Amino acid sequence: MNRILHGHAMRPHLVFHEIEDVSISKLDSAALVIFFASDLGRLRMFELHFIFPGDPETLTGGYIYDNRIVDGLWDRGWKVCRHILPDGFPFPHASSLDKASEVLGRIPDDRLVIIDGLALAPMVELIERHSARLVLIGLIHHPLAEETGITAAQKSLLWVQERRVLAMCARVVVTSSTTAAALASNYGVGPDRLVVIEPGVDAAPLAVGPRKAVINLLSVATVTPRKGHDLLIAALAPLRKQSWRLSCVGDLERDPVTTAHVRKCVARFGLESRIKFRGVLGQSALARQYHSADLFVLASQHEGYGMALAEALACGVPIVATRVGAIPVTVPTNAGLLVPPGSSRDLTSALMRFFDEPRLRMRLKAGARASRLRGRSWDVAARCLEKQLRELMAG
User: Fold this and answer.
1) 298 has which bridge partners?
2) Is residue 329 part of a domain?
3) Do both 165 and 227 map to the same domain?
4) How many other β-carbons are positioned within 10 Å of the β-carbon of residue 267?
5) What's this model's pTM, rounded to 2 decimal places?
6) Strand order of the sheet with strand 275-279?
7) In terms of domains, do 318 and 370 share one?
C-alpha cells in the first residue's frame, strides 16, 4: 500500500501502527497492522526499528528528516520497521507510554532501534528496562529543554530526562554541529557517540524575485512560541509604508493558543491585508511559495538546523533571520542578514535595509544562489547513517 508523504510516495516499509490511523480507522487501535508492498519480498540483510512520536506524515522539518532518512536506508537495502506512537510527546499521557512500552517489548533482542528525540526523553524509564538488550540510537533535532513556551519546571524535567536517556544511547545522531556542541557541553554526551548528519536538500528551480514593486516575504514554520511569529509581525508593523506582503506557511493547529495570539497581533497592527496564513501546504504548493518569494524570514528563538532555511537557499532566496542555534551555520553570511533573537527593533532594521537597499538585495540574492552548490543530498545523509549502523552491528 503506497501512501503519499511530503509529495512523494511513501516507501513500502514494514509499518507497525500502534495507534488508530486515519487510513485504518475501522481497525482496533491496538492491533498490529503490517502493510506489504510488491517489493517487500526483496532480500534485505539488515533490519532497523524506527520509533516515531505521533503522525509521521506531519509536515515539519523533524518528521521530514526522519522519513527521508528512512527512505534512504530502505533504498540501500535495509528493512525498516516503523513504529508509530500516539501524539502528545514530549508530555505524553499514560496511555501513550503504555503503547511505547508495548513497542519496545515486541522488538527482539540485539536490534538497532532509532528513537526520535521528541519521544526519547519521556520514554527514559521504559528505555532503562530495555537498554541492555537493544542497541539504541537517539535522533536529536534539538534539545527539548531548549523549547520555548514551556514552564521552568518542564524545562528542568526534560533536561534531567534527556541527560539520563542519552547516556544509554550507543549513538546520538544530531542534525548540526551546533546541537552536537550543546549535547557535549550540557548533556555529557561524549564525542565518540555523537554523530552529525545534516539534512539533505532537494534541487529546486531558482525563485524569480525580486522583480516587482511589492516584495514577497515568506516564512515557513509551525506556529509555536519558538518560531517567533509574533516578533516578526511586530517587526513588520513599523514598515507599513513599504511595499511588502507576507505568506506564513505552517501548521496552525499544533498550538491553538499561540495561533490565536499571533492572529491577534496581526489584527492589533492592522496588517490583515498584508499577512496571510496558508496553513500546511503540499509539496507543489509550497514550491510555488518559494518560487515567488523575494525574501525568507524567520524570527525563531532556537533552531537545531532550520530545514526551511536550507530549502529557501536551494531556491536562491536570501534570508533575514535570528542568530540562534544552527542558523549561523546554515545561512552563509553573504546570503542573509542575521539579528539577535527577541529583538523586534533589530529585525525591523534588517528588513528595512533589505527593502531600501537594492544593491544589498542583489548581493544577498547572489549569495543565496551561490550557496545552492554546497547543499548535500539525502542519499549522502542516509549513507552517513548507514555507516554508523554498520559499525554498531560490527560491535
Assistant:
1) 321
2) yes
3) no
4) 12
5) 0.83
6) 275-279, 244-249, 215-220, 295-298, 319-322, 336-339
7) yes
Range of the domain at 175: 4-200+377-394
Average pLDDT, the chain: 88
Distance CA 376, CA 265 (A): 38
Instruction: Establish if 205 belongs to a structural domain.
Output: no
Strand pairing partners for 136? 113
Q: Measure the CA–CA gap between 166 and 180, rounded to whole angstroms.
A: 12
Asked if 340 and 346 touch (Cβ cutoff 8 Å), the reply is yes
Domain check: are 248 and 145 in the same one?
no
Q: Is 58 helix (H, G, I), strand (E, B) or coil?
A: coil
Angle (CA) 62-68-69 rounded to 5° is: 90
Record the cell numbers describing residue 328, joined without a space: 549561523
pLDDT tens-place string over residues 58-92: 888 899 999 999 999 999 999 999 999 999 999 99
CA distance 347 to 343: 6
Sequence-distant (6+) residues with CB within 8 A of 345 are 235
Residue 330 C-beta-side C-alpha neighbours within 13 Å: 33
Strand pairing category for 4-5 and 8-9: antiparallel
